Amino acid sequence: MSTPGDIVIDIADGIATLCLANPARRNAISTAMWNKIAAFAGDVATRKDIRVVVIRGEGDLMFSAGADISDFATARSGEGNARAYDDLVENTCLAIEAIPQPTIGLIYGGCMGAGSSVAASCDMRVAADDAFFAVPAAKLGLGYDPRGIARFIRVFGTGATRQVLFTADRLPAMRAHALGAVHVIAPKADIESLAGELARKIAGNAPLTIKAAKAAIRALSTSNAELLAEAEQFYAAADASADYAEGRKAFAEKRPPRFTGS
């Protein structure tokens, strides 16, 4: 049973599921929730028992309505507070991006505002065919953090970002799928099982290989020399790993490999 305005974490069979549990506010993310998500992201990076992370909203009606506007009167009032709040959101999204394990956003219903930033911070997105993304800042008179806009551009493209931000209209998941921003799309009744299938497939592969691949993709997509050097280290570690020896042996013996992440 979840506590309203909280996050709920479940870990089973190498898959960690982080649930945004604030259904009374359509899974809006409060200041406390931002801090807890960032703490979870930092913790999961050190966990060998976690091979995939799934982020979702509670229920099947809404991924997230975005940042909890009820916090804005205090946490985001005034120029200094607004910047500090936006830093909290951005740093949380960066923490999600920095998780070395693959992350999957499971999208039901609306994925709005800062909720879209959370989904865009994931490596992959799986969405119900009636889901949508939206950034309604223009309807609130709210300045939208350029760092969040940059993330949206990286995932959805410049054209879709212009349309979403200028019009405050919804971007249907079907169109996002056509743009490559959503990796799996299906009717609502099927999407959870498909997300589970994807997570299990990833969890069954060599974790060090995937860690190296994710690090390289992240470094190359941001042109970050420091991240690229780290990716080179992960690549070398995978080649020197016991898992690589196990993979070769399993292939020769025509059996499934048993990867341990070492």
Structural description of this entry:
With 262 residues, the protein is of the alpha/beta class. The chain has 12 helices and 10 strands. It has a 6-stranded mixed β-sheet with strand order 1-2-3-5-7-10, sandwiched between helices. Strand 1 (6-12) and strand 2 (15-21) form a beta hairpin. Helix 3 runs parallel beside helix 4, helix 4 crosses helix 6 (146-156) and helix 10 runs antiparallel to helix 11. It is globular. It starts with 5 loop residues before the first strand and ends in a 10-residue tail after the last helix.
Give structural attributes.
globular, 52% helix, alpha/beta, single chain, 262 residues, 4-stranded mixed sheet, 6-stranded mixed sheet, 12 helices
Main beta sheet: strand number and arrangement? 6 strands, mixed
Q: What is the molecular shape?
A: globular
Structural class: alpha/beta
Distance between the termini: 36 Å
| Number of separate helices | 12
- What does the average pLDDT come to? 92
Give the radius of gyration: 19 Å
Unreliable stretches (pLDDT < 50, length at least 5) are none
Order of helices and strands: EEHEEHHEEHEEHHHEHEHHHH
Report strand order across the widest sheet: 1-2-3-5-7-10
Using DSSP, what is the number of strands?
Answer: 10
Helix content: 40-55%
Amount of beta strand? 15-25%
